[in-house]
Write the structure tokens for this entry.
Amino acid sequence: MPSNPILICARSPELRTELETALGDVGYTTTSVGTPADAVAAMRGRAIDLIVAEGLATSGAIASLRTAGSSGTITPILIVAPAHDVEARIAFLEAGADDVVPGTFSRSELEGRVMALLIRSGKVRPELAARAGRGELICLFSPKGGVGTTTLAVNTAVLLAGGGTPGPSPSTNGAAPGPRVLLIDLDLQFGQVATHLNLSPRYDLAGLASDDQALTDAELARAYLTSHPSGLMVLAAPPRPEADFRVTLEHLESIVEILRPMFDHIVVDLGSRLDPRTLWMLEQADVHVLVLFPEIAALRSMSLLNAFLAETTPLQARSLLVINHVLPTELLKARDVQNLLRATPAAEIPYTEVEMMRAVNEGVPLVISRPASPAAAALRRLAQAALGIEASSPAKRKQQRRRLFGRA
């Protein structure tokens, strides 16, 4: 159960009660007040990890609450906005709110947004986040190329590192450092993670694989990583395709062993080639994200992959299916994919016309360049699903609410 202390600031007694019940039922410690002035007073002398506030009348109130903590750090703030008022939600984000939830929120949506903010701000309590010295391994793969696996890997990693969040980065302005996140480009022949992030790495995975000393020395191994302004660290693919043949499975095992204890999350872009290194990574992973464009060839490839893995590879990971609409034409419906693969997609990324292409060409991930776009919202749902935070459809929310929160 999470134990992060959360401050609730709401004028409406009914809303305060609803928030207290929803957050208390899943283990959060809550304190409730009615006005921003009371909230500032409540934050003196006590640790508050997150503020959930009813829509504030003045933008200055949001900034005051974010910096009112006694330790001088930035406290993330989630605003409850009027339902169906898109302009108000945008205004709150522009005023400095870290996220906004509509007043018609379901408990599952509230819990997911709260957890996502706590993770991105580095405030998840150790009893929830500790992984016994081993970072969570999230592997993205597709048996068919050209479906956007690298795009999803890059945006997911940036989100987990704290990027793509309105307002100051959690690693700046005195705030607690965000989660330690590493993105590995394991498409060793033509990997483009560095291109998507506008990075020019001095070192790469093939170089690390050939450095015997670095494979046994964590600090030397860290020198092969490239940092991104979001706080993300990147182990880039080699610039020349022939370097792929010099990286063995044994090299990869050593690389993961030396780097995994340094990070909370390791996102791996596996590309679309199934080889011994890919299979080993899938075996080690905590989460699989399988990417699919909804058309017959991709669907058949995914079906063959699932059958092959079921017969040959012992997998322990949670498996997430993601539909990525890389073309404007919808050849198959999401329900068709669900029926044929017998899996419910964790996220469906809408076609964005030029937005995604521009993000790649400019080297600025969509969750940073267009955080309010529908595609960025879908990418946030994917990142939450990778962390085990489920998002439900409106038709299923009532049933899911009973399932998730029916415990005493």
